[in-house]
Amino acid sequence: MNRAALTLLLPTLLLAACAQPAATVTPPSTATTNQTPSSGYTIHFQNVGASDFSASVESALQSQGLVIVNPDANSPANPAFTFQRISALTFVIGGTRYVQASFRVTNKTGVTLNSLKFVPVVPNGGSTPFSSVTYYDGSDASSKAASLTTGQATRLDTATQTVQTDAGASPYLTGLDVSNVDTSGLNVASVKNVGWQVASTFAPGASAYVTFAVSLPADANPKNDPFNFSLNVVAAQEGLSLTSEVQQYNPTTKTYGNYTQFPTIGNQSLPAFYDLKLLDRNGVSVSAVLCSNDGAAITNISSPSFPNRFRVTVKALGAHTLQMYSGTTCPAAAGRPLLSQPVTGVGPKVVPVAAGSLHSLAIKADGTVQSWGENSYGQLGNGTTTNSKVPVTVSGLTNVVAVAGGTYHSLALTSGGTVQSWGFNGLGDLGNGTTTDSTVPVTVSGLTKVVAVASGSVHSLALKADGTVQSWGDNSKGQLGNGTTTSSTVPVTVSGLTDVVAVASGGGNHSLALKADGTVLSWGENSSGQLGNGTTITSTVPVTVSGLTNVVAVASGAGHSLVLKTDGTVQSWGSNTGGQLGNGASPKADSSYPNSSVPVTVLNLSNVVAVASGGGNHSLALNADGTVQSWGLNTNGQLGNGTTNGPLGNFPVYGFAVPAPVSNLSNVVALAGGGSHSLALKADGTMQGWGYNFYGQLGNNSTTQSTVPTPVSISGVAQPTP
User: Fold this and answer.
1) Key word Repeat present in the record (predicted)?
2) What is residue 222's three-state secondary structure?
3) Quick check: do 245-346 and 351-452 share a fold?
4) Residues 410, 423: contact at Cβ < 8 Å?
């Protein structure tokens, strides 16, 4: 997960309420840490419960900046923030008085603030964030301070006489990491781990709204209630973080977070790039260093664009810890780090289902492999060339962790990092130094320490633990990426690729690689723009896909490509004849949809955790809630939405250009797309299939296609890992 902590940002605020006209908060001059500390600004809640309830803002007598982002910002002529009162209200219900005041806050700092929050603090000598608490007659009510509680803004539903959360108000956050908030030199004893979020990104000159809400017990005699009080808060931003560039899916939280599971073979693992952010009390980025004392290998790869970036690998299976310190060198002995990130060396990622053009594959929980569908070249791997409508066992395979399917061949990756292949071998697809087909698995020559595999139409890819990529098979379109168009019966190195963390090559003649910096490279055929570099020129070496960052997963079809981004959205490019880009484009005169040679956004997707596309012209997306969306060509029902035609009717438009739900699917954990069929693995180890089924590739003991998901005759399928 993202590791972030708050740092103090701007002058301390003393909050109290307002019913006066708009007020501008003017910070006093900057003070150094050896000057008399103070609590900053005051916003007074006054006459609470009376008809003249009000709130007003004034400068404190003394102040010291917590973090002065601009050294000149803390002056009367150039305030750090301005506050304009919007409203103040109070009501009593159920024995509780609710008090709140809303302000329009404007950023006058001159810099963009990251996740600005107002956080309550306890001043020195106090025990709560509240001070200056008095009764109606002005007498001391400090004993009641502990009964005052901060919280989310609320509203009174007059129809039901109930208190409702005001969802439109500024969020009140709990569980904030305030362990590194520096309050030295300030009149602050402690910082609360709660606060009001103003804005996730707060640009200079921008304005946002914040509502400070307080509740307190309402006495039967209002004169016994606090009548005036002040709330002490500080302005803080997330100025301390430890974040990996490529994120990893957490199936427990169903979100993407830091890259913590490192696929490892022997003493090598795939890399992750970690960016460190550390702001000083002037809001300026300062040096930080990433360290490890227990087997992680860390290299400083900082640059002007990424001033605190580190390359991380692990050298053994098991637990390790990354530690962030200030400065440029790691301490000689382990000390108290600013932040820590546990990471683990694990085996290769489990990819339990795959689909070839006309056949399907699944790994059982015991590490064996089942296959079904078309078998004319032995791609089912059971020693025959007989098609099968139900799963059969691939001969002699154990300890398999990932499978991939091409047009007529199949691949299996073992937990030990070797690769097996079977099926068609006319162009060296099997990588064993021959062009002889095989109906049973054979070993791909010379490959060790492999952590992922992918299969194109008649070529294959292997990602090694050191972040390099090997390829073999057909190379007529440069899909091997070695600078030639000569096919190879044994693995060759893809040119210039390092720090790769994922590869993809669907049923086409192009390939993709995701790097640890979140960018994507592509190579091979580009007639439809499937390389995504703004051209339709084929490339025999990797080129950069235009404008992509923050990518977490890649997938490819026959002539198009997909990527999943950290925010759960999907981008696509390449062939769009059946609408497989999902960008809602209008059909051309020939009723096909226009291609794109650069990434475009797939519409109506926002919470995706996995994408898939096989040898055809359709695409699949798995949502965090376990449901599935599909789009693209639908001639054989491969979209699973109960039809075989697109929204514009019958031939020649058979595709859907925007995602739509697959019918009656839930609890899905993995997807695979074939030439014209689709597969889904469920959390209970069962599978569903839909689409074309002439060769039995749906595995349901029939050859009848299905436009909706139908059960595959299999159970006990392995579950995927991050």
Assistant:
1) yes
2) helix
3) no
4) yes
The CATH number assigned to the domain with range 245-346 reads 2.60.40
Give residue-wise pLDDT tens across range 385-415: 999 999 999 999 999 999 999 999 999 999 9
Tokens matching residue 238: 């997330």
Task: Identify the band that residue 13 occupies on the pLDDT scale cut at 50, 70 and 90.
Answer: very low
- Burial code (b: 16+ CB inside 10 Å, e: under 16) for 622-632 equals bbbebbbbbbb
Q: Measuring CA to CA, how many Å separate 46 from each of 96, 100, 103, 358?
A: 18, 12, 16, 75
CATH of 351-452, one of 3.40.50.2300, 2.130.10.30, 3.40.50.1820, 3.90.1150.10: 2.130.10.30
**Tokens standing for 76?**
């009367």
Where do runs of H (alpha helix) occur along 248-288?
none
Beta strands 96-107 and 81-93 are antiparallel
302: CB partners within 8 A, 6+ apart? 308, 309, 310
The secondary structure element, H or E, covering residue 657 is strand 655-661
pLDDT of residue 651: 46
* Residue 80 to residue 534: CA distance in whole angstroms: 44
Domain boundaries, the chain: 3-241, 245-346, 351-452
Asked if residue 706 has pLDDT above 70, the reply is yes
What is the spatial distance between Cα 13 and Cα 26, in angstroms, rounded to a whole number?
Answer: 11
Q: Which amino acid is at 70?
A: N
Tens digits of residue pLDDT in 636-695: 999 999 998 766 554 455 689 999 999 999 999 999 999 999 999 999 999 999 999 999
Contacts by 650-656 with C-beta closer than 8 Å and gap 24+? 652/590, 652/591, 652/592, 653/587, 653/591, 653/592, 654/578, 655/577, 655/578, 655/579, 655/580, 655/593, 655/617, 655/618, 655/631, 656/579, 656/630, 656/631, 656/632
Max CA separation in the chain (angstroms): 98
Q: Is the pLDDT of residue 307 over 60?
A: yes
359-363 and 353-355 strand pairing? antiparallel
Region of poorest pLDDT, from 235-244, 614-623, 671-680: 235-244
